[in-house]
């Protein structure tokens, strides 16, 4: 089926990996290497890393260490091979999107090559169970070597619903790995293959300087050690599981929050700041992108407010600035109910008939057709491709401030409010995020996030 064919081509990946240790290297004159290379855990002896943890030197920004660098020629070959693999993935995704777009341009005209016919045949496998008349018309036109005009709606749904986002992800990954190879793999928690190392004596930025550790253990909390916590569970008056330190029984630890014995929030150890590990888009659980995108809309970036009303309505709804109309809500509920009915019916009949019986296969085909119809057959009056394009552009613009970039600085405002500052490669602050935590009942924490841009103008024009 065309959907699975597209995804299998787009999400092919490579297996080389790298681990990162926080901090930037500032090489001395003996190493003659660039200052932008990241520090990795596999280049330091474990004993040295342990010593740093025991003696973090929060106020000491620079430390002298022995740095073990992979053999340059071997490292370069690894980079070239992995970049080529991601380029191939991007080109495969682009090829699928191009075929789809070519067919949209050829509606009512002859096919140009056999690949286009193969693509339409795969698409017909999806269309036939849902829209038999359309499928017959498309097949008849194919026999005449003509791209049926009946394909228009289905090709547009493939472009916007299946192909465009994987292509953008593949482009983003290729641009990321080709720009910062080591940072790309580090962001995925992976490790590069072993190789021969060269030893240098370097001046290295202290990874614990203004780090999250300094924030956690400061203000008299240097006694805290997660490894010392014991587990405990209570069922009355509130059902709660928590950790506690026998030496400090007045505190209860749950995730990154510290409570007293009555469930009152006492301190936040760490905010939910790991933006670069999460989806950075309007549908993410992390509110930072939505807040930045709202600011971009307010600032009329790319002259978005001059676009048509449907585009602005879509953008504002996605950002929580405007509600759907009554008709749009009705259509949305109708489609949601149809999708839910298809899924529940599939589960019910799977349990009743099994997957391998003739009756079971027939029922599953029926539910699959209904599900595809519910997803593909909805109204297009609400969706705006231009609005989605603007959101994607803003996502890419602002993602550059977080991609593979840990926070520059943490500042504790009070026990339950923490400021996280990001900066460019020159140490100039760019974005400030304030995390404030409150509670509405015992042991239940509510996160409030506010975002400030520390530069003027749109993100796309920011120059460090």
Summarize the structure.
This protein is an alpha+beta fold and 464 residues long. Helices cover 43% and strands 17% of the residues.
Protein described:
A hairpin with a 5-residue loop joins strand 4 (230-234) and strand 5. The protein contains 13 helices and 12 strands. The protein is 43% helix and 17% strand. Helix 3 (72-105) packs antiparallel against helix 6, helix 10 (309-318) packs across helix 13 (385-399) and helix 11 runs antiparallel to helix 12. It has helices at 2-10, 46-54, 72-105, 114-127, 132-143, 152-179, 181-186, 212-217, 288-298, 309-318, 326-353, 358-376, 385-399; strands at residues 25-26, 62-70, 197-205, 230-234, 240-245, 248-254, 257-259, 265-268, 409-414, 417-423, 429-441, 444-453. The protein is an alpha+beta fold and 464 residues long. The protein is globular, with a radius of gyration of 27 Å. The strands form 3 sheets. It has a 5-stranded antiparallel sheet, with no helix packed on it. A 4-stranded antiparallel sheet has the order 9-10-11-12. Strands 1-3-2 form a 3-stranded antiparallel sheet.
Which key phrases capture this entry?
single chain, 4-stranded antiparallel beta sheet, 464 residues, 5-stranded antiparallel beta sheet, alpha+beta
């Amino acid at each position: 089926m065309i959907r699975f064919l597209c995804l299998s081509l787009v999400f092919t990946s490579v297996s080389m990996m790298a681990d990162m240790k926080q901090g930037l290297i500032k090489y001395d004159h003996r190493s003659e290497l660039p200052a932008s290379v990241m520090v990795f855990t596999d280049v330091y002896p474990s004993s040295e890393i342990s010593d740093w943890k025991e003696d973090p030197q929060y106020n000491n920004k620079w430390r002298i260490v022995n740095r073990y660098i992979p053999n340059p020629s071997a490292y370069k070959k690894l980079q070239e091979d992995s970049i080529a693999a991601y380029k191939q993935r991007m080109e495969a995704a682009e090829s699928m999107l191009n075929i789809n777009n070519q067919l949209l341009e050829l509606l009512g005209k002859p096919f140009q090559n056999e690949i286009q016919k193969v693509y339409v045949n795969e698409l017909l496998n999806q269309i036939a169970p849902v829209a038999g008349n359309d499928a017959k018309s498309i097949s008849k036109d194919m026999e005449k070597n003509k791209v049926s005009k009946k394909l228009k709606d289905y090709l547009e749904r493939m472009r916007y619903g299946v192909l465009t986002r994987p292509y953008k992800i593949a482009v983003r990954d290729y641009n990321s790995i080709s720009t910062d190879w080591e940072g790309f793999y580090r962001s995925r928690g992976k490790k590069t293959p072993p190789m021969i190392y060269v030893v240098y004596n370097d001046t290295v930025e202290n990874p614990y300087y203004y780090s999250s550790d300094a924030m956690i253990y400061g203000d008299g909390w240097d006694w805290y050690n997660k490894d010392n916590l014991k587990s405990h569970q209570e069922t009355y008056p509130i059902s709660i599981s928590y950790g506690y330190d026998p030496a400090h029984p007045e505190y209860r630890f749950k995730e990154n929050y510290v409570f007293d014995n009555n469930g009152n929030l006492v301190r936040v150890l760490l905010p939910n700041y790991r933006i670069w590990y999460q989806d950075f888009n309007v549908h993410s659980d992390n509110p930072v992108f939505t807040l930045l995108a709202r600011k971009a809309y307010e600032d009329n970036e790319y002259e978005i407010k001059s676009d048509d009303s449907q585009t602005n309505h879509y953008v504002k709804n996605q950002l929580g600035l405007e509600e759907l109309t009554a008709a749009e809500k009705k259509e949305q509920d109708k489609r949601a109910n149809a999708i839910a009915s298809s899924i529940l019916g599939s589960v019910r009949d799977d349990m009743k008939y099994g997957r391998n019986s003739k009756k079971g296969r027939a029922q599953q085909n029926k539910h699959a057709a209904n599900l595809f119809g519910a997803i593909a057959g909805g109204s297009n009056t609400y969706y705006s491709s231009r609005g989605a394009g603007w959101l994607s552009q803003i996502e890419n613009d602002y993602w550059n401030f977080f991609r593979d970039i840990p926070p520059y600085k943490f500042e504790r405002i009070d026990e339950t409010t923490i400021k996280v500052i990001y900066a460019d490669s020159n140490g100039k602050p760019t974005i400030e995020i304030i995390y404030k935590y409150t509670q509405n009942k015992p042991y239940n924490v509510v996160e409030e996030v506010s975002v400030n841009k520390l530069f003027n103008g749109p993100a796309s024009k920011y120059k460090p």
